[in-house]
Amino acid sequence: MNSKQLHYFATIYESGTLSKASIQLNVAVSALSHHLSNLEAELDTRLFDRKSRGLRPTASGERLYDHARSILRAIDAAREDLRISGREVSGDVAIGMAHSGVKAIGVPLIERMLSEHPKLRLSISESLSGATLKHLLSTEVDLALIYNPPSDTRLRTWPVLEESMVCVGKRAIIGDTEAPIRFREMLELPVIMLRHGVFARAQLDDAVLLKQLEARARLQMNSVYAIAGAIRAGLGCVIGTRLFMGDLIAEADIHARPIIEPELKRTLYVCELTQRRASFAIETVRDTVIEMIHESIRSGVWDAEAIGEK
């Protein structure tokens, strides 16, 4: 198996037919069919079911496509990285961000990259922290900003900040007072949680406390807009941060109270995959992101404590 075979296979997969792939690759249909047959023989498995209207990937074909996409992207990154070594930074870098990251530094990061590295093509994907982790592990992004990532040998991580969590909800639900709310009092409220697993972990990294909250949660949903709508409708309250919930807290009947006994905090990490060596472009974006996060804390945009600030 070589990179040409993987490239041909991926194009056939994405095109759905040999004829469309032939046009895209400028390679004869017969040649593509020959390459595909050789690849299936080498792997001793069928990669596509031949249908009258095209090709449908088998389970083996689906799995190989995931591998091929990762391998081909790594090859392109290596080629670009070595080509630009010692010269102007360029190439493609994809970064996944939790909503707080986009809110605090998303637009400034884009502006800075366009100004300082005009040949660098940056793409930003916004999602909940748990989904961002999945995007990184599937190599859909090169870098990711993730809250409380699990201990995983596949990840290389840099902690950059720690945020205190607050209870956010209508005053009629959480109380019309500035006084902190105790964690045990939170358990008596109609709490809205993110769903189990890596999504909920982004809210709270303490497994014991998390299980207590999940057992009492009125609602569980992995949608920022649905959570905001539920809070406005008075269906419950949520554990969040002042940055993340800032737009809601600004509304007259929505309030935020610090949480104590214990004080709840979460840590944001910049993450990469250990198996992928960072290119010059990725290093540039990573260093800039960390610098800008710390700048946003110093300026008061991000209400958090910096970690590892130079």
UniProtKB/TrEMBL annotation:
Gene3D superfamilies: 3.40.190.290, Winged helix-like DNA-binding domain superfamily/Winged helix DNA-binding domain. Belongs to the LysR transcriptional regulatory family. One of its GO terms (biological process) is regulation of DNA-templated transcription initiation. GO terms for molecular function: DNA binding; DNA-binding transcription factor activity. Residues 1-58 form the HTH lysR-type domain. This is LysR family transcriptional regulator. Keywords: Activator, DNA-binding, Transcription, Transcription regulation. SUPFAM superfamilies: Periplasmic binding protein-like II (SSF53850), Winged helix' DNA-binding domain (SSF46785). It comes from the Bacteria. It comes from Flavimaribacter sediminis.
